[in-house]
Amino acid sequence: MSSYPKTIVCLHLSLNVCTCLGDTQIVEKQKRVQQETNVSTTNSTCTTVGTSSDCSTNVGDSWMIKKVLTKSDLDDNCRLLLNKDLAKKWVVPMVDKAKAENEGDEVEVFDVDTGFPVSLTFKIRPSNDSHVFNNTWITDFVDRRSLKKGDEIGLKWNEEKKRFDFSVLHRSDDN
Question: How far apart are the C-alpha atoms of 30 and 47, rounded to whole Å?
């Protein structure tokens, strides 16, 4: 019988997804591993602003922007309204800001659930400093995916593919 403490080795940590340990144990284990490999420490906090959440640094959650869809995201406005602070943090650095403030900047958005690529226009409306994705938002996402008020979607920047990834994270109970 060895006098060494029992050690649990979890391979999930390298993927930032682990159900083997509690959140505190995951963070502590990651800190130890990262100190050994000089990888930056992840923070396990989530900021919620209105119906949008910034959860990009959650352990096991890589969606930079989460949004519960509202009636105005689904109606005749033909646009997905993003929280201004989250858009400035996660979208604006990835687009041509000058174009976004004028005619809009066309960006690729890939529906990871269905493998469907779409071009949307990201626009900053100077009159009210709103940040929106429009162009084919209604036809290519709302109609095609049958999105409803209360559905939660996620957006994140895919650095490797130089595009935004999209997913329906949760369907509302009304669907």
Answer: 21
Which amino acid is present at 172?
S
The whole-number pLDDT of residue 27 equals: 38
- Number of Cβ within 10 Å of residue 44's Cβ equals 16
Q: Could you give the CA distance from residue 48 to residue 161 in angstroms, rounded to a whole number?
A: 27
Cα torsion 155, 156, 161, 167: sign: negative
163-174 core/surface letters (b: 16 or more CB in 10 A; e: else): bbbbbbbeeeee
Give CA separation, 121 vs 7, 109, 134, 140, in Å.
Answer: 51, 10, 5, 12
Q: For the whole model, what pTM was predicted?
A: 0.65
Collapsed DSSP state (helix, strand, coil) of residue 132? strand
Give the sign of the dihedral formed by CA 90, CA 92, CA 96, CA 100: positive
pLDDT at 167 over 90: yes
Q: Which has the closest alpha carbon to 135: 147, 148, 143, 123?
A: 123
Region 120-128 average pLDDT: 92
Q: What is the pLDDT of residues 59-84, one digit of tens each?
A: 456 899 999 999 999 998 899 999 99
Dist CA 27 CA 33 (whole Å): 10
